[in-house]
Structures are given as C-alpha cells and as structure tokens.
Amino acid sequence: MTDFSAFLAPDRGQPATALHVVHPDRWTDWLATQPPRVRTAIAAAGLTGKPGNATVLPGEAAEDWAALLVCNEAETSPWRIASRGAALPPGTYRLAEGEPGAAMLGWCLAQHRFDRYRKDEAEGARVLLTGEPGRIEPTVRMAAAIARVRDLVNTGASDLGPEELEDEVAALGEAHGATLTVTKGRELETGYPMIHAVGQAAARGREPRLIELEWGNPAHPRIAIVGKGVVFDSGGLDIKPSAGMRLMKKDMGGAAHALALAGLVMAERLPVRLHLLIPAVENAISGNAFRPGDVLKSRKGLSVENTNTDAEGRLILGDALSKAGEADPVLILDFATLTGAARVALGPDLPPLFTDDETLASDLLAAGVAEHDPMWRMPLWDAYDDMLKSDIADMVNAPDGGFAGAVTAALFLRRFVPKGVAWAHLDVFAWRPTAKAGRPKGGEAYALRAAWKVLKDRFPS
To answer: Quick one: pLDDT at residue 119?
Structure first.
C-alpha cells in the first residue's frame, strides 16, 4: 500500500517551490502583476488562461522556478491540483496563495499506483506543504481507503477469490481488534441459502461465504455496512457474452467500498457498534450451478423464483441484509455493483441512491455536494413492486422486460430490510472508464467520501 503520509508535510517555512493556481476569471489581472520574464515564458508556452494551462515559470536565478496551473475548479474540490501531483518533478511545493485544504487528497491520490502486476519505475515523492497540519492525518486515511478500493477492484479474480477477500477482512479486523465470523460452504445451506445457491458452483477453495466483522462498544448505536462480494461474475447459466464478462473482476466493488468504509469507522473510532457483512461468492458454471427456474429459499423465509442467474448480486445481498437487520441497527448502508441499468440511466460517475428515509437521503445528497462525491436519488417506486410477482413463489429476482432495472433491483433488496430501519442502497460502478487528474482508469471509489461524512456527522467521535 502506498505511504500517503510521504506526500504531505506541515509548513514550517522550509524551502519549497511555489505553485500558482489561477482561476481563468483572474488570469488577466494575475498576468499583469507578473515580471517580464514570467510573461515572456507564458507567451512562449502559448498559454491563454484556459483551464488546464500549465507550465514552469522562471525565477531570478537558474535554480529558482515556480509552477503554474490555470484551474476553474472550486477551492473545495479534492481534484483542484491533482494534475500537478502527477506531473511536477519530485520535490517540495506550497501554494503561492492560500491553503491546499481538500486538494491535498487529490495530490496524494495522483501519486498512487497499482503495481501488483507491473512495477513502475521508482521516483521521488512530490510533497505538498500545508499550514493546516491537523488535516494531514484524515487526508492520508481517506487516500488509503480510496486506494484500497482501487487496488482490490483492479486485482484479477485469479488472485482475489472469496478466500482472499476473507483474508482482507481478517487483516483489517486484526488491526483494529474486531471480531471475525465466517460462515462458508455447506454451512450456508440452512442459514444463508441464497448465498450458498449463487456460489455453490465455484471450484474447490473458492467456496461461498458470509464474512462478518463486529467492532465497537455494544452499548453504542449499531450500524451495518454491507457490500456485494461477487469476485467474478460469469453470469452463471445465463452466461454473459465475453464483452460483458471482461470487467467482472470488479463485481466485488461493493465489498471493497464496504471494507474501506468500515476501516475508516474503526480508525476514527466512531462511537458505534459496527457490523460489516460481505457475502463473497464466485458466480461460476458447473454441473451444480443454480438454474433459471429454481425456487430458492432465503434467510428471511421468502421464496424467490430465480428468473436470471445473472441477477445474482441481489440474491446474496438479500441474505446479508436479513442478517444485518436481525441485530436492530439504527442504520444500514449497502454498496453494490448491482445493475447495468444504473449505468444506462446515470453513467459511470453518478451512482444512484435508493432510500425511503428522507433525512438519510437529504444527508447523503448534501454530503455528496460538499465532498464533490455526487450521487443521484432514484425512486423506490411502490407501483413497480408488482414487477417482482411470481406465479409460483413469493417473488422473482429479475422481472421480464428490463424496465426500471435499477429500481426493481432496489425494491428486491428492500424486501429484506426491516421496516423502520434507516437504509440506503448505493448502486456503484466501482470503475473509471477514462482517466482524470488523480483518478486513473480502473477501479474507483464512488460515494465513499459522502457516506463517510454522513457517518462522522451522525456519530461524532
């Protein structure tokens, strides 16, 4: 794991290269204040004050230089100077004006590399100075949490099966003194039959399991964080085409989000009783794979007609949500790479939020705006509950026709959440298809920073 603490330091007046961050609206006025050598360098570089313009500015001596970035992002954006965190030479920097604040996060993440399979050439750190040293530790913590999501999602399924996901949870629990419980293989048949059904076709050593961590004072309010842990999704007997299977190593992205958020809760020692639940399975194909038309039992007692083996995530989440609800939590958050319909509706960057709790919805949406980590509320439309009707069971897992796919998936999950419990479902993509500053192509955390803000605000330490 990258040591993000190497990229930030308290500003004690030590030598550092100045980084000028200029808004396009201030470009003309700023340029007029610069000495002739700077204006000449800017003219030679062809800069016009458009967002993204960047160059090196000469100083009075040969070794004396500064950096320039034209940026129209808000000062509260974590990505404001992320492009410079990756592009500038190793060294120590400070903003020419103001404090970096939230931008420290993007500066750190711009220097993170996923190097499990390909080692990048070693290079020195780019250190950013801040006059707000109290922000360094929480920034480093968040950067590490986001990097954890990215690294887990980027890891190939051959190296991250249910057992390896269990190892990740166990290591996190050991670091914070949490209690680990794992129910796996045939043990799932009676207590978690839908998790067992989905994962039973996997090879030996990749048996399905429900991984649980409990941490914190039992007298504190109980919260449950649930994450979909499908380590690879072939689609089952309703097999995906090869193009649809290509990125299915990322189908455990919800588990990665849940694991990262749980780590933040424990590291910050929020006054809560934390319950982390990750149903971990591989949706594989073999002679004992669950079939279209099978009627599955569930932990809650509802029977589910399996109309699509590629709608497996909601099945394993159903059992996990049932278990989470049995301990009377005051809040349940679940993260899942659940539906392609969510991507069709909102694209990769904007996860849909589903909740019946108006206060929770308001808090999450406001946190998304404040943290530049947006989501969009979509309806748990009661009238569409009829789409889940089955002729032979209590419900189907996937309605015919494909209408409102993200909504009906969320409605399915709602049936396994106790009434009256504040619950939110986030249908995250967990993948960035194109790179942006500080955000490389590949695994990505969405709504994690917003969810963390809500937990901190609700349960201040």
So the answer is: 83
